[in-house]
Every structure is written in structure tokens, then in C-alpha cells.
Amino acid sequence: MPQETSAARGAISEDANASQARQATSDSSREESRSPPAVDSKKGFFDYNEEKNLHHIEEKLLAHRRGSDAATASRPVSLGSSPDFGPDVHHLDAPHLNIKLSAITEPALPHDGRLPDPTLTPAVVPADLKGKSKLPEPPVAPENIPIFEALERCLDLRDKYMRVSGQKLGFNPRDYDGNFTGLDDDIATVSGVRPDADWASRAPPESRFKKWRIYPRPPPPHWHWKGKQTVVPSNPDHQDSEEEFEFSACEIPDADKYTFGIDERGVYQVYDPASESPKSPVYEIPTIREYFVDLEKVLAVICDGPTKSFAFRRLNYLASKFTMYSLLNEPQELAEMKSVPHRDFYNVRKVDTHVHHSSSMNQKHLLRFIKSKMKRSPNDVVIFRDGKELTLEEVFQSLNLTAYDLSIDTLDMHAHQDSFHRFDKFNLKYNPIGESRLREIFLKTDNYIQGRYLAELTKEVMTDLEQSKYQNCEWRISIYGRQRDEWDKLARWIVNNKLYSHNVRWLIQVPRLYDVYKQNGSINTFEDIVRNVFEPLFEVTKDPSSHPELHVFLQRVIGFDTVDDESKAERRFHRKFPYPRLWDAKESPPYSYWVYYMYANIASLNQWRHQRGFSTFVFRPHCGEAGDPEHLASAYLTAHSISHGILLRKVPALQYLFYLKQIGLAMSPLSNNALFLTYERNPLPDFFKVGLNVSLSTDDPLQFHFTKEPLLEEYSVAAHIYKFPQSSLAELARNSVIQSGFEMEIKRHWLGQTWYLPGAAGNDIHKVSTPSSPPHCIIRSTRLRY
């Protein structure tokens, strides 16, 4: 075959020479345009016309060579060649998510948008990939090997921290729904099965847990709204699912034999008194020294120049690949979505994965509620001030206001232009009419009326969500860490007011306000906050009867958050950070310090709760909205997913790591537009094109939105400004459910029975309205290739 190729090239050369000779005898000017120009020895370079002519001839010769080389089946595969996905793309296993040194370059889709014919390139399929994805493995440039090894070490570090903390899918006993029995640790991620895993050949692991009981039980598969707080099954064969929450119907388990205590490093440890070494912890948690050493490793990688250049090129390539795919296949996607009955954007499940409970209503809703209370309950005693009790009417008289005077402008709770880069002004927007006493009356759970008004307001918002049926949320509610009884007060508020909804789950946010508490004398050291936040949780895990309401409430709590203004300057006063019991300075610890102690105590708590068969928690902090990019590196190691993350646009290597590990980003463009980044500069559309696991969230509807459906408002603005097609909106909605902490039984109903599998196997267009066509699933799974 090489001889034939050489002969063909010789024939081409002879023809070209003969043609040039004929041209020379007829027209000298045409000879110059057809023959390769000679380089002027005095100039040392081609002029413009000569270079264009040479380029034209080289293109012709290259086309001839490609034609002759096409017959050679054993030729090396070029970096841009199209992969052979095999005849059955619906069982496509995406290759290794981590970086493989022998297969780092990601092949592209064919230019025509169709799958290649599997019979065209049989010789490029390595023997060890037959029956799998059948992708060629191009050679690796030697200078890239250190980059790939460094990135792979970062990926392994995250795997270690996720494994220790039990944040991977399948670890939480709530995931056991009678059919799903968990995932092996080596193939599990926080959001599903690893794309490279050979999951089809594995038997499901055995589970020691029984089916998780969701109480009150969720609605039947098909139901419709009929009146207030009434759910009627559409199918008469289904039993009535409406079940009122009753605390007496909740099961309270017995106490456990294990004990616990906080060690000198500020981390709660679990001990087994019956073991040979009762003073040794049962579970190994990374020390703070190990954490900061690992953090420095990640920071060194993402600050390395060649690594940044490589990641930048890869991110641009991924975004361009998605753009090309969209141009080729958007009409086919739309046609496929139209062929699915009943399902469209309005009736796919969407979860607001980042919304604060105290601002979960819009301004008009809060205004109507305040007016109704002033008219119907003016004599309610609502606050104790200056040594006496005050009724609601007396409070408004002291403000010289009546119900008629109130308006949206009077409330002044919307974050307009005066809040941009002014987080201090934004925090003041939580006070209606600028008065902290009104916030205490209407928006606090622990006040003189035991949070009765806020409970009524919460039920009204829950009713709106249940009427919409397809919108769900995860409200973030605060535990401050100032007092030890905060958990019991919050749990009693939830249980006694029966604040349970099929559409709502809860996250606990811990404000980073150490400096404020230290100044007013609420605490002495940082260890006081650690004790106040985590000790009640370890107590209720050991003996649920010690805090029965808290045990019941924790079944609806899915995780933790830490929140504050990230733009605050962080000064390092210590070469080596002291342990929490020694941190008595007036300055607050840095973000990375807060994150470690949240993570370490959650990890220890999760291991014990898993052993007991109780629900476990994930860590989903506010991160990357402003401040130092080091915050994002800390979250990369410790967090299940994050809120915001807009600073990833400035750190390409870290953005690439977030992409490879599919770490969830709950992004709120309207919130960012008011506080830190204008809407048109938001990186959400770029992140989505690259393939990051992004979803839309509202953050604070009270400050940023106008309608009673703030989540749809967020989707609407994004669709108009970023020109998102219906398929992209459906994928954003699907991502929001995957990032959420709803139980596996509910997720399987919303997304499909095998939603956690990669590629086409995990996509059900009848559930999520996301196209299941082979090109779509390939572009979604192959973008995760390396």
C-alpha cells in the first residue's frame, strides 16, 4: 500500500510538472499563479501573492494525499478524527472521567451532526476497547504529561474528601427506596455514576437498610389540585395520598452504644466504649493540617501557567463543540421534543436549590400579609420593648403608619442600584420600612409570638408551590451558633406549626458572624460556635429521644450552608492557624477555616448517622460570589455543590476541575446583577456551553423578583437574554433536580428510573423533556470524557 501511495504521488507530480511546462509556453503570468513561487534570497520571505498561490497549491496536494491515504486502514488517527461510537449508542459508556495519559485528547462529533458508520474505521479500535466506546487513543505530548498528572492528583483529592464525608450518591439511607440499593464507591459521584464506569456488568450492591419512609407520604404519580390542602389522585386505583403530619405518628429510635466528644482540634469524634481502644475514634477524619496541605496542592496546580493555558484551551474547545452541535441539531431536538405528549417546559420538575426562607416570598405577598394582620389582628401582642408589651397596632402607631400608608415603595425591600457592591446595604433590605422590629415580628422564627406570623406566611408560600405542582424549593434557614438551644427552638417551630410540604426541603445556613458575636459577648472562642452548632446533632444521633422534635425535623433537612459577605478582606494573622479552643481573637477566621470545621464535623456526623440508618447531610456553601478564588478551591475539596460560583470565570484550571467532577453550581443571575456582576456579564451561558453542572435559582425573591413564581421569572429572563432554546431550559431544570436533596424515590419519579446513569441510559425524555436522540446524549456524555 505505501508503494501504491508513492506511485500515485509520483503521477500527480509528473502531471503537475507537465501542466506547468504547457502553461509556461502560453502565458507567463498564469505560470506564476499556478507554480510554486521561489523565495527571493534578498527578501527571505514570500510576498502576499506568492504566499496565497503557494497555499492554494498545497491545499490541492493535501487533498490528493488525503484521497490516497484514505485507502490505508492502518494510518495514524488524527486528533480531529471522528470516533466510532458503535452500533448501539443507547448503551454508550463514556470513557474515564479522570485524565488518562494515553487518551487525553477528546474526539469531536462528525461535521454533519450524524453518528459515524461503525464499519468505516474498524482498524482504529484498540483491542481493549472492543465492546465499549471504541475511541482511538492519540499519542500524548511529553510536555503535557506533568499537567495531566497534576490534574489527576486534584481529582483524586476530591474523591478522598467526598468518600470520607459520605456525600456521594448512594451513601445516604434516604436513597434506598426499595429498588435502588446504592452504588459501589469506586463508580459513584455526588450526582450519579461515573461516566467511565462499567456499570452494566455490575450487580447491585446488597443493602442493609430497609426502604426509606417518606412521611408524610408523597402524592400519587398522577394527581390534581382540588381546593386548599386537598390532593386528589387522578387515577381512582391509587389510594388517597393526602396525609396530615402528626408528630405522634413519627418513630423515635432507641439510644446507641457509641459515645462522642470534641477533641483538642475542634472536631467531634465518635468512640466505641466496647472496643479494644475506646479512646480511639471510630471514624478517621482528615486533620486541619492535612486539609491545608491538600488545599495548597490544589492552589499550586490551578496557579501553574501551563496548566492554566491547557485548561483555557480545553474550555474554549468544549464551548465551541457545543455551539457547533447546537447549530447542527437544534431543529431535530425541537422536533423530538414536540413528539412527546404532555411534557413541556412548564410541567417538568424544577427545584429552586438556593433560596433563603426569610425572603422566599415576593414583596407584594409580604405587603398583603402585613396589611391583613393590621386589619384583622391589630390587638395581637407581638413584641416586648422598653419594659412593656406592644400590640401590632401600637407598633405601627410608633412608626406613624397605617395600613393605608403601606406600599411596595414604603416597604423598601427591593435591591435596586444602591446595593451594587454594597452588601451592607443589601442586608438592611431585610428590614421592612427599614425597621428591625418589623423584621423581628414578621420574619423571625424565635420571637415574642414564637414565630407565628412567619409560620402562617410560610404556609401560604407552600400552598402556592403545591398549586404549581412542578416547582419545588430547598429553603435555607439559619442556625447562628450563639446559643445551644437554637436547634430545639427551630425544630419545635417546624413541628408544632406542621410546616411540611411535598414541595419543600430544608438546608441549615450558618452565618459566619464570629466577630459580631465576639464583640457583643455571646461567645468567647470559635469552639463555642462549633459546640452550639454540632453538639445537639450528635446528641440526637446518639439518643433521638433526647431531642424528639429535632430528630423528626432532621429527616427533612438535606444539608448545611455557610453564608456571609465573601468580599470582606481576609487578613492572615497566624503562620499556623490555632485550634478553635484557642481562637479568641476579635477577627473572624478566614473562609477556608470555617469550611474545614463545617466539613469535618459533618463528615463525622454523617458516618455515625449512616451506621444508625438515619439521614445524612451534604455541604453546599455560598462560594465564589466575590472575594478570593481560594474560597472555590476550599469548596472544591469539601463541598457537594456550591451556590453562585461566578468567580470560576477567572480561574480556568479550577473551572476545568469543577467541570470534570460535575460539581453543582446553583447560579442566580438576577441576584448577581443587583450585587456583584451585571446580567450580561454573568458566566452562566458560558458555563452551560462548556458542560458544567449548572442550575438556576432565585436566592432572595423578596429582594430581586416581582411575581409569585420567582423561579419561572428567573428562567424567563435567562431564556430571553441568553437565547436559551427549550432543550437547554429543560436541561437546566433537570440539573436542578439532580443537585437537590430530594429522596431517591421522588427523583426517580421526576427524572426516570435510572436518572443517575450516564448518557442515554440516564435520560428519559418523557420525564424531563430533554432530547434522548443519540447526538444529544453523546454530546452530553462525551464532553465529560477528560
Residues in helix, %: 40-55%
Mean pLDDT: 81
Side by side, the strands of the main sheet go: 5-8-9-10-11
Q: Any low-confidence stretches, pLDDT <50, length ≥5? A: 1-14, 16-46, 65-133, 228-238
Pfam family, one: AMP_deaminase
Protein name: AMP deaminase
Family: Belongs to the metallo-dependent hydrolases superfamily. Adenosine and AMP deaminases family.
Keywords: Hydrolase, Metal-binding, Nucleotide metabolism, Zinc
Describe the structure.
- With 786 residues, the protein is an alpha/beta fold.
- The chain has a domain at 2-69.
- 42% of the residues lie in helices and 9% in strands.
- The protein contains 27 helices and 15 strands.
- The strands form 5 sheets. Strands 5-8-9-10-11 form a 5-stranded parallel sheet, sandwiched between helices. It has a 4-stranded parallel sheet with strand order 12-13-14-15.
- α4 packs antiparallel against α5, α6 (305-338) crosses α21 (684-690) and α17 packs parallel to α18 (630-638).
- The chain is globular.
- The model is unreliable at 1-14, 16-46, 65-133 and 228-238 (pLDDT under 50).
